[in-house]
Description:
The structure holds 2 protein chains of 2 kinds. Chain A is α+β, with helices and mostly antiparallel strands. Chain A is 40% helix and 27% strand. Chain A has helices at 2-13, 19-31, 75-83, 90-102, 114-123, and strands spanning 36-38, 44-46, 52-61, 65-74, 128-132, 136-142. In chain A, helix 3 runs antiparallel to helix 5 (114-123). The longest helix of chain A has 13 residues, at 19-31. The longest helix of chain B has 26 residues, at 28-53. Chain B is α+β, with helices and mostly antiparallel strands. Chain B has helices at 28-53, 57-69; strands spanning 8-15, 22-27, 75-79, 83-89. Chain B is built from 2 helices and 4 strands; from the N terminus they run E-E-H-H-E-E. Chain B is 43% helix and 29% strand. At the A-B interface, strand 4 and helix 3 of A face helix 2 and strand 3 of B.
Amino acid sequence: MNENRRQILDMLASGKITADEAExxxxxxxxxxxxxxxxxxxxxxRGDKVKYLRVVVDATDEKDGPTKVNVRVPMQLLxxxxxxxxxxxxxxxxxxxxxxxxxxxxxxxxxxxxxxxxEIVEQLRDLQVDxxxxxAKVRVFCE
Amino acid sequence: MTMLPPMLAVVRILPSRTGRRxxxxxxxxxxxxxxxxxxxxxxxxxxxxxxxxxxxPFATLGAFFAxxxxxxxxxxxxxxxxxxVWIHVY
Lengths: 143, 90
């Protein structure tokens, strides 16, 4: 679904469609039901698993000219990174938890499991950050 | 997605000044093979450090392998006036 939205925004940016047409297309996409796959015990989940985190930068410098950056990082890296919390010694982990609690964040990093991270990654499915500056456009999204 | 470390990296560089395209196929599997003896020599040191720092050695090793294995599919493209760089990790 993010790919469809991206294509619509690209067409709008390149002037192939108007803003009204883009809005109609985006609404049409939102009305479409998500692809569902039946799992065990009748549980359903969306079929399109988030695979990559994309960062696209389109910058224009008056002196140097245009620069484009396109980075694609597998989401599996994020999941694997959670396992690196095993590097943190228990004493340091307690200090980190205390520092987080002091800031009002009630999270125990020792209890951060791959399953809980899956829920976070699922919520990242619709993450889309668009920064539109005079000399640069930055897009961050998951696909 | 496979959890094996990446085996190959393709790097393409196109400097705008010279215009000569450079294409490199980096056999990462050879890099891992070359690093293996050093890793084996340093393993006892690693276990000692883990014992001193109170770190789970096998879990940490597994985490590093998982991070390496998840690099497959990484793609970086930079297109600037000076040069164009394209890197893909398989």
